Amino acid sequence: MTATYTFDVFTSLDGFGAAGGNWTGYWGKQGPELLDHRLALYDQEQRMVFGANTYRLFAQMLAESTEESDVRDPWVTRMRHLPTTVVSSTLEGPLDWPDATVASGDAVDVVARLKEESDVPLRSHGSLSMNRALMAAGLVDRVQVTLFPVITGQTGEDPIFQGAADFDLELIEHRTLDGRTQELIYRPTLHV
């Protein structure tokens, strides 16, 4: 049996994974329910999968952060201590991540092998271009979208699905967190 792969992503209503300007982490919309839910998600045994750019971004944000910043929220700390595979043709180990290994090669090949070999579910938070390629290859079993109640039309950065293939999405789970943030979990199928 192959391991389940979840593409986990935060987004604004207009489809951006981040924003510039005076927006803060979580677009300033985090609440206790969201943070507790995220912590519980990372309490489960699983393996993280990141592309090189996302790994570099996380490592830089953590290095530049203080104990009080959003970057050090308990769920992020827990995520950082999970076994992690970083897919990269440019990075070499050891990485500044407690239990991370580098897998060189094409992400589609690396993740296909991980899905066959892993005894635990696989999860990727971010890694947009890598996950778009994995979706097109049929390797993403779940797309977990945390939708924050903001529109970042002027300051939006990192369009999540720009350049992606077309997909039909089957809603398999949903919840509202803190009365405003939506979590939607879909099963993607390439639209033909």
From TrEMBL:
Residues 6-180 form the Bacterial bifunctional deaminase-reductase C-terminal domain. One of its GO terms (biological process) is riboflavin biosynthetic process. This is Deaminase reductase. GO terms for molecular function: 5-amino-6-(5-phosphoribosylamino)uracil reductase activity. Gene3D superfamilies: Dihydrofolate Reductase, subunit A. Pfam families: RibD_C. It comes from the Bacteria. It comes from Promicromonospora soli.
